[in-house]
Design brief:
mainly alpha, elongated
Amino acid sequence: MVNPLSYVLAKTILVFPWFFVFALFAHGIPLYLVQDAPGEAFVIELILYAAVMFVFESVAETLSVWFDDPVRFEICNFATCSSFVAHSVL
């Protein structure tokens, strides 16, 4: 069995930087380059966007191993995450 602390630490170190890349391409470029939003809050929004995506991904992984039907909870997580993304863009 894997030690939970080492799993969380490894997952955070390996996965969390990629969410910054995803946040940059999903939120940073469309909002700041295309829509010409003011850039004062760019770093804060990038960090918040990456953190929210990390939390939703972690919840999806937890629910997929917790219950017998992982597909149902992955679909719920996708619907919740996409509705959050849609509301944050609007």
